[in-house]
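Hey, can you fold this one?
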Amino acid sequence: MTAYKRILLKLSGESLMGNQSYGIDQSRLNEYAEQIKEAVALGVQIGIVIGGGNIFRGLSGATQGFDRVKGDQMGMLATVINSLALNSALTAHGVKSKVLTAIRMEPVGEFYSKDKAIETLESGVVAIFSAGTGNPYFTTDTGSSLRGIEIEADAMFKGTRVDGIYTADPEKDPNATKYDKISFDQIYHQGLKVMDLTATTMCKENKLPIVVFNMDVKGNFIKVLKGENIGTLVHL
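Sure. Predicted structure:
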C-alpha cells in the first residue's frame, strides 16, 4: 500500500548528468526508470516533469547574450529531449508512458490538455509533461506546480540530489539541519530556496503539498510513496 494514489514527480535535468558534466548518463536514466516501474507496479498514477539544465538553461543563456525569450524556448526544447530519453528508458523496462508537450510538435509528442493527461494516468500509463508551461519566464518548477494542480495530484514529489530541506545549503554549511516537515509560510519567512516563488505560491494557494527527497538514492522513491519519513514534507 502507498500513501498516495496520484503524484506529480519533478526531476532535475542536472541529476540526469550523473557523474558527467553534460548530457544524459544512461545508468542514472535506467535507475530512474527502474524506480518508476516499481511505483507503477504499486498502482500509483505518475505524471512527470523533468528539467533541461543538463542540456541548456534559458536564464543562464540570457546572461551570456541570448535573448531571454529565445533562451527559454531553447530550455523548453531541452526538456523535450530529456522527456523522450525517459520515455525510451521506461519503454525498455516494460513501462507504458506518453510524452505530452506544452508546445505543438507532433509527432514528437502529443499536445497537452488536462483531459488527455488524466485519461492517460487513469489508464495506468505514465504521463511525461514536457516543454514547461509553453511560455518564457516560467521555470520547470512552475510547470510542475501547474501540472500537479491540473491533474489533481495528491502531492508533488521533488526529486533532488539532497535528502530534504535544510536550514541552509548543506553542501555549503556543515551546520545546516534538516526539516522533517515545514510549512509554506516558514519557507517564505526564512527565504529558503525550495522552488521559485511562483511555483511555491501556486502549490500553497491550491493546497498541493510537496515532498522533497533524494531521488538519486535507489529505493527512496518507493519509501516516500509509502509514507516513510526520509525527506521533507512541505504543508500548509
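The mean pLDDT is 94. Let me know if you want another pass with a different chain boundary.
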